[in-house]
Amino acid sequence: MDSQRWHQRFLVQADWTKELRRFLYQQLGINQKSRILETGCGTGVITSELSELSAQKPVGIDIDFERLELAANHYINPLFGCADVYHLPFAQANFDGIVTHFLFLWLRDPLTALAEMLRVLKPGGFLVALAEPDYLARVDNPQELWKLGELQTQSMIRQGANPMMGRQLPELFSSAGLVDVQFGVSGFQASSRDIPSWYESEWETFEHDLMPHTSLDEFKRLKDSDLNARQIGSRVLWVPTFYAFGKMRNH
Questions:
Q1: What SS3 class is residue 125?
Q2: CB-based contacts of 167: which residues, under 8 Å, 6+ apart?
Q3: Which residues contact 18 (CB under 8 A, 6 or more apart)?
Q4: The pLDDT value given to residue 213
Q5: Phi, psi of 132 (to 5 degrees)
Q6: Residue 71, Cβ neighbours under 10 Å: how many?
Q7: Nearest to 105 by CA among 149, 136, 71
Q8: What is the pLDDT of residues 109-140, one digit of tens each?
Q9: Dihedral sign from CA coordinates of 146, 103, 107, 209
Q10: SS3 103
Q11: Residue ranges of the chain whose pLDDT lies below 70
Q12: For residue 142, is the peptide bond before it cis, meaning its omega torsion is within 30 degrees of 0?
């Protein structure tokens, strides 16, 4: 998918966690003086939101320059930069908080990335992973759609994702040296007979993930089965999505 389509997808994902973010931002005590960094900001959807919480300009970094160009065109308040999470271009103890959203599952060496994030975090500052899925605990119904879950999980693994990052967040944060680590699972509620507004976005993502490794006929069959199950009220699709946060030790 091109950057514009990814932007639409990131908007959908941000909508899924909107209420959770409000809850977590309150717990974390973000205020008008908070200087916040988002690592893996994509097209800037979450970073732009942070502009509303602090008088300090939030900073978003990503390794994809095209997505950052789109972010800069859409949102004028944040500062965006192209950078690697393993080599952040910031001085030590620079930020009051660091935010991530669907990032850690893509990191091949998350502990090294965490060490670099903690380097630029002030003593007492927070790090929060707002959303990390656990594909190995995915639930699909009816049975003919179990295959869809299996195919997407296999595709995520081929793309380099850790399919069970969600459940590993607390261990990862504690191992990195964060204290007062808290974790949970995003709330989930859906209508049993519903075609959600993000339906086509979901299937664009399935197409991106599945088409290199499945036939067009099977892809169409799965999509038809999914639509039919939603229309008759039998469709269940749930990927447990974890969050976690912790604080940098005060020296």
A1: strand
A2: 134, 137, 242
A3: none
A4: 85
A5: -140, 115
A6: 24
A7: 136
A8: 999 999 999 999 999 999 999 999 999 999 99
A9: positive
A10: coil
A11: none
A12: yes
- Residue with the two structure tokens 């008088």: 55
Q: What is the DSSP letter of 181?
A: E
* Single-letter amino acid code for the residue at 202: E
3 state DSSP class of 192: coil
pTM assigned to the model: 0.92
Q: Which residues of 11-47 are buried (b: 16+ CB within 10 A; e: fewer)?
A: ebbbeebeebbeebbeebebeeebbbbbbbbbbbbbb
Q: Which residues of 119-138 are buried (b: 16+ CB within 10 A; e: fewer)?
A: ebbbeebbbbbbbbbbbeeb
Residues 6+ positions from 215 with CB-CB distance below 8 Å: none
Residue tagged 């339906």 (tokens): 199
Tokens of 44: 């800037």
With CA atoms as reference, report the closest residue to 65 among 90, 44, 87.
44
User: How far is residue 12's CA from residue 49's CA, in Å, rounded to a whole number?
Assistant: 14
Residues 78/60, Cβ–Cβ less than 8 Å: yes
